[in-house]
Amino acid sequence: RDVIADPIGLSADGVLGAAVARTRELHLFRSDGQNLAGGSPKAQLAVPSEVDELVSSSLTFAEQWLFVVGEAGDRRQLLRAPADGSAGLSAVTLPDSEEQPPSYISDQLAVSGDGGRLALRAGAGPSAHDIYTVDVATAQAHNITDGPAAHAARGAVFGRDSARLALSADGTWVAFVRQEGADELMIAAADGSAAPVHLTGPLHFFDDVTRVVNLLFVGDDDLLFMAGTEGSGLDVYRLQVAAGLLSNVTAAGSTVQPFDGQGDFIANTAWVAGAWLYYLAETTGGGVRELRAIDLQSFNTRTIYGQGWAVDRPGALVACGSTV
Questions:
Q1: pLDDT tens digits for range 130-182
Q2: DSSP conformation class of 244
Q3: CB of 82 within 8 A of CB of 101?
Q4: What is the spatial distance between Cα 129 and Cα 166, in angstroms, rounded to a whole number?
Q5: How far apart are CA 48 and CA 226, in angstroms?
Q6: What is the CA radius of gyration of the chain?
Q7: Which of 26, 209, 233, 261 could share a disulfide with 45, CB 3.0–4.6 Å?
């Protein structure tokens, strides 16, 4: 019978893979036929004896390391092992959350574009926790928020109502969504050197802007996100992090701060292909769906197709170079 837990983890280049079997077995493999450190393209890694179960949905490759969340009794641990199979799993020590070691760790880990830093939620439980970052090479961890609160799960890497925890390409910045009745977008230095900054506060957005989704760092300094009023519509906004400049990219709602969040679409599906961000926009006026795109170099927008159609799943459209 099938003993492999779903899903498996893959490295960014697809060469390395990891799978959990029989609850607590961790299997590492190469897909290119080359050998791991033990002289074989596959290996079973040692797991600490106190770990009862490995959470397969947390399997994450970053640089030369494999990370996974393990359950030990009523507590969770963040574990890592060299991705070449040369050693087994060992625990990563996280700083305290409200003077207690975290007992809960989310199984959704975010990774910076260069693979050098992780971001995750951890604390007393899924409804009250902190945002942490971990330096991949050294395993040094930082409590970024230093005060438990409800924070949105990362969700899918990108898509509908997701991507709500993100790192800049170089791992310098971490952006996340705090949930206190409404979505509140925060950004902080990923090394914990400064307190988080509230981006959707009253200086920048009206109070009725309650929804923030699809955080996307473009390179090291530009953060895109979709925000708007609940039940109305969204716009795509851009933060130039170093300069602290906020602008409305799609400009359906107000373009002067504080932004009113009165965009003209409901995020259906979004994806990145090459230097373009594509998204399906379902307009609030008549339910007409449009395929739109944002150039991730100039941040100009355009409508690719807008005749009204019925596509509502990520795999239904395939972007090709000749479309724009």
A1: 999 999 999 999 999 999 999 999 988 776 667 899 999 999 999 999 998 89
A2: T
A3: no
A4: 17
A5: 41
A6: 21
A7: 26
